[in-house]
Each structure stands twice: as C-alpha cells, then as structure tokens.
Amino acid sequence: MKKIIPFNDALYDYLVDTNPPESDVQRRLREQTAAMAEAELQISREQVGLLQFLAQLSGARKAIEIGVFTGYSSLAVALVMPPDGRLVACDVSDEWTSVGRTYWKEAGVDAKIDLRIAPAIDSVRALIADGEAGTFDYAFIDADKESYPDYYEGCLTLLRSGGVMALDNTLRGGRIVGYASDDEGAAAVDSVNRKAATDPRVAMCHLNVSDGMLIAMKR
Fold first, then answer.
1. Is residue 166 over pLDDT 80?
2. pTM, two decimal places
3. Which residues of 176-207 are buried (b: 16+ CB within 10 A; e: fewer)?
C-alpha cells in the first residue's frame, strides 16, 4: 500500500518548523543561495535536518562531502561536529564555494572545513593514497551524477565500519524510472541505487526525501 502524502505549502512549513531550527547564519546563506540562478543545486531545509542527524548519529569527527556548491550543507554538518572535527569538502568551483567560506568563518566553523578545489574523485583517491581509508565517520555525495558509482566506491573505502553515507538526487526528479538511453546521469544513479540495495558491504534505505536520498551504513 502506497503511503505518500501530497504536500502543500502549509504542510511543508509545518515539516520545516518541526525540524531543528537553523541558525541566523544558516538562514542567510540559504536565502542568498536561493536568489542565485543555480539555486536548484541547494539542498532543502528538511535535508539539512536529516544530514545533521546522520552526522551526530554516526558520531562524526571526520567527514567528507562530495559537492559543496555554496556550502549550506557543509555549514550544517560542521556546526554539529565537535571542535576537533574535520570535514573534507570537495568541489571544483572556487566561485561557488567562496560564498560559503564567508559564512563558515562567521559561524566559527571554518577551521573544521578542509576545502579542496579539484575534481572530487581525485581528492578521494588522494585521501586513500595517504592512508585514510577506513577512518571517516560520515560522507555526503551531491555532485555530478555521472560519477556517482566512483564516489560511492571511494566513500565506502574511506568510511569505517559503522560509518554513514548519504547520496542526494537518487530519484532524479522522477526521471529515474524510464530514463532516456542517453541520460548518463540517471543511468549512473540507477546503477548505484540498485547496487546498494543488494550490496553485502552496507545496510541501507532509500527515501523519498526531497529529490530522493539513499542512506547506507558500512558494515
């Protein structure tokens, strides 16, 4: 039996109001990003609550984020990490991440965030080569969809047993079902969704939060 509740503005506002409140710094970063032409790349308010919960549930002291955009999710996770926490934030855009850096500093979490401007898979492979496999508590993937299979494997290698990984946009705006043969992004995400569902290395669930989120815990 399907149990999906259609949302109107009032119900969505209620959902947001009953999630953890955002700080003034978070609100201003979210609002500035919402005014940008690329605003659809930003995660939603309820996703922030989920990511903060997952980071705290995993006891995250060491985390990685694949895809930073303007740093809204980075800020959220860094805020709930301990003072000695480290978040490796991977993105290719100095322009977009420069927006977030201002707010990270204002919130007093900039020292926790290790921003790496380079192709994310290169940063992941560098961490593995430096002996950091199996040492991360938390990972969030929200970048180019064609690379999701590589990001999934790379982050799984970096995570310790019991570490948590979340992937965004796993329903692709509904296009994950019956996607066109030339839609490489949907094909890549679909392959990860199906792989994770039967992957003996993880326990997982797939949720219809925002544009779909897959959450996996490394066994």
1. yes
2. 0.96
3. beebeeebebbbbbbebbeebeebeebebebe
